[in-house]
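User: My instructor asked us to take a sequence, write out its structure as tokens, and then describe one feature of it. I'm not sure where to start. Here is the sequence I was given:
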Amino acid sequence: MSDIAADLLRLSEDPNADPRTRRRQTMERLVQTLLAMADAEIGSEDPQHRHSIIHLTTIIRNMTGRIAEADDATFSAIVREAVMLVRSLQQRQADAVTVH
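Assistant: Let's start with the prediction itself. The structure tokens for your sequence are:
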């Protein structure tokens, strides 16, 4: 799997894209990534974890328009937090595979 966190950062910083379009693409990519991670949680020992990922995904999807219109500092902070979340989820999934 490619480094999704790096993809999110790259998308958010693309100077050739319209800022709102770029931001929407970044949030859409984040939603797709989180949904894929939630799917990977099927059958895990903690079904609440999968539910939490799906709930967060729904919130982000519903707020994509507002996030795309946020000021630069706010948008950057959201992307940084998203990247930390994705990396944390990737590590959790890698640890689960190692344990089993």
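For the description part of your assignment, you could build on this observation: The mean pLDDT is 82. Try explaining in your own words what that tells you about the chain.
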